[in-house]
Amino acid sequence: MNRIVISCGGTGGHLTPGIALAEGLVDQGHKCWLFISRKKVDERLVEKYPEFEFIKTSGLPFSFRPVRFVRFLLTHFRGFVSSFRLLRKLSPDLVVGFGGFGSAGVCAASALLRIPFVLHESNRVPGRAVRALRYLGPERVYLPPGVRLRGLGPSQVRHYGCPVRKEIQPRPLPQSRAALGMDEQSKLLVVFGGSQGASVLNAWAEENFEYFAHEGVSLYCVTGMGKGEERMMEAKTRSGAVAIARFVPFTDQVADLLSAADLVVARAGAGSIAELIRCRAPAILVPYPYAADNHQRANAAFFEQQGGGIVLDQDRLGDLRREVMEIIFNDWLLRKFRGNLQRMDRENGLKLILRDLDEISQDTRARNRERKLEGVQC
Q: What percent of the chain has pLDDT over 70?
């Protein structure tokens, strides 16, 4: 049995693959601790996983603004000190960092304590944390297929996909629609701004609901925590029936949500895209234009190239309604997208990472035995 710390807090895009990895490791008999941030989205998401031990650490995202930069330095120093103490107490065999501001102090502390650590980058443009931490000597850096990062040797890099939680599986449409309280017969458009929501997509959904309802399209919008209360709207269809729209701040029914959708309008975080692929959910991706290094645009472009859906930049939001209508009633195109999504899901990133972590653990134990033998001989 290995003792493994997983640093994965800050956003759902970091936390959900960390939980997926913890599920796989625990199933293999390993002991895990998950280091998360103090953000509300982390607190809400981990409520569903009482079987895991979550530890909150300090940290804030990087900013060039003077006041925020000072706060960034202070919180990360506190995070590094607390991580150093925690790692000495827990004495793990391995640390896994999923990028983001939460991983910096934990992985730096593990390097100082000479605890082997690995990094995982889900986005097609590696983030600042992974770019900085690569110089501290990680055992391995997991990157998306086709992505390169200078300064790493071939033995350090593996091109594996994003781990997906085991509950995220495609489900029958009647079951998923019933779980959401949505009609099985009508078309369903899901608007999903990721773990933190997207105000511009929420506003677009509300403004266009009556039009979609008239055309026989119902709507389910995950607004994000702090962006309004749960509510429902109703409007008449062309035939006089009733179409509904549900607006919810948060959902832990992601598999039902994506399986129920005929079409999804979503941001382009790597975690959300991995879940779209797993649930075979065709999507129109609207990348967040202010994401660091424009990484969501790169994620979305790859998704479109692989045939999972299309990309529409936020400055063309006025065209979104037309794009939705051209796709959601085109059953041939929707089947084509779903077939491509199934092909994209052939490689199970979680299984590959678990197998590789076992190899790293075996190599580490072998090196430690060699050091002990050398010490005895000396």
A: 93
